[in-house]
Design brief:
The chain has a single domain, classed as Metalloproteases ("zincins"), catalytic domain (Collagenase (Catalytic Domain), 3-Layer(aba) Sandwich), CATH 3.40.390. The protein has 5 helices and 3 strands. It has helices at residues 18-29, 65-75, 79-94, 102-120, 136-151, and strands at residues 9-16, 37-41, 56-64. The relative contact order is 0.24.
Length: 170
């Protein structure tokens, strides 16, 4: 989150199983199969963010550990690396990015790669500039980063009621 320039924000990360992801995917995306990760944003694109001094709840990222383990095995790498990859993917969805078109996919996946590289580098985590795609998603991400930087100045977390769950992003 630090590499994305998000301060004063929080998200919920749930490690679950294929059964739960299948159920969530069917209920919220209308797809009758398990998936690796789903993201549930607390706000729709363009919605205003909290007042100065409040913590922002980005949303929820739910990962199927079973699905991630199969993907890791098929790609020949370790499960922790796959979980990290999926957590970053979910975070980038919560920042407003998607991969419905080839252009969006290229932008989103490139940004994910930069975030993972920055997060794993030695020393202080450097902020990666969010790419601009000219869509409302990139403007949403910019507003979120600005709001989170303002909110992160000397604040403490306050409990927030959970907003109604929105349609997931995969």
């Amino acid at each position: 989150m630090r590499a994305a320039g998000l301060r004063g924000v929080e998200l919920s990360l749930t490690l679950s199983d294929d059964r739960e992801l299948h159920s969530l995917n069917r209920s919220y995306a209308g797809e009758d199969h398990a998936t690796d990760v789903l993201s549930f944003a607390q706000r729709e694109a363009g919605e205003a963010y909290g007042a100065l001094g409040t913590r922002e709840a980005l949303g929820d990222v739910v990962i199927s550990v079973e699905y991630a383990a199969r993907q890791a095995a098929s790609h020949g790498h370790a499960l922790p690396g796959e979980l990290f990859h999926l957590a970053v993917h979910g975070l980038v969805h919560l920042c407003g990015y998607d991969h419905r078109t080839k252009n969006e996919e290229s932008t989103m996946f490139g940004y994910e790669t930069e975030l993972r590289t920055a997060a794993l580098a030695r020393g202080a985590v450097r902020k990666v500039s969010a790419p601009s795609t000219g869509t409302s998603r990139s403007r949403t991400a910019s507003r979120l980063a600005s709001a989170s930087q303002r909110a992160g100045r000397g604040t403490t977390a306050r409990p927030r009621p959970k907003a109604p769950t929105r349609r997931p992003r995969r």
